[in-house]
Amino acid sequence: MILLRFPVLVRSCWFGLNNLFREKIYDLPLTTVQYTVLRTIFNFGSKKLNQRAITSLIATNKNNLSSIIKRLEAMRYIKIVENPKDKRESKIILSSSGKNIFRKTNKIATHLQENVIQDFREHEIKSLTNYLVRVNESITNSHTKSQEYSKTE
């Protein structure tokens, strides 16, 4: 019975957390997915990322990310810097206003996360994190195997 509930529980947790976060940042000029993109860029620091890398890191597709990137650029939260040696390749970096809105939003995200896990012991949080990492790796491996199998048909 637990196995049957697993996908529903994971989905429910994600949607619940995302909805809470959306409510908390309602007054800010940023959506939850835009925050995710800014967080990803911020966390990579001096390693400048391109759209392909961000797409993979946040588990989205290039069409979705492209529209998010365009909005963030229009809001002046990011800058797209072309590679002078290869015009097809560009790097995405945070602007100073992007860093500011990220930090402000990140405080809210951190506070929300702390509230959600406040009743967990440290070892429970580590275990849950490890389990989710393993589930994610299993999904990634299954997806890779599925792609390899479909290529051989």
Describe this structure in words.
The protein contains 6 helices and 2 strands, in the order ααααββαα. With 153 residues, it is mostly helical. It has a two-stranded antiparallel ribbon with strand order 1-2. The chain is globular, with a radius of gyration of 18 Å. The model has no long low-confidence stretch (mean pLDDT 88).
User: Could you tell me the mean pLDDT?
Assistant: 88
Strand ordering within the main sheet: 1-2
- The shape is globular
Low-confidence stretches: none
- By secondary-structure content and strand pairing, the structural class works out as mainly alpha
Our Rg estimate from Cα atoms comes to 18 Å
Q: What fraction of residues sit in β-strands? A: 5-15%
Helix content: 55-70%
Give the SSE order as H and E letters: HHHHEEHH
Euclidean distance between termini CA atoms? 35 Å
- Tally of strands: 2
Task: Count the DSSP helices.
Answer: 6
Largest sheet properties: 2 strands, antiparallel
Short description, anyone?
By secondary structure, the chain is mainly α.
List keywords for this structure.
153 residues; mainly alpha; two-stranded antiparallel ribbon; 2 strands
Write the layout of secondary structure elements.
Layout: H1 2-24, H2 32-43, H3 51-57, H4 62-74, E1 78-83, E2 86-94, H5 96-116, H6 122-152
Antiparallel strand pairs: 1-2
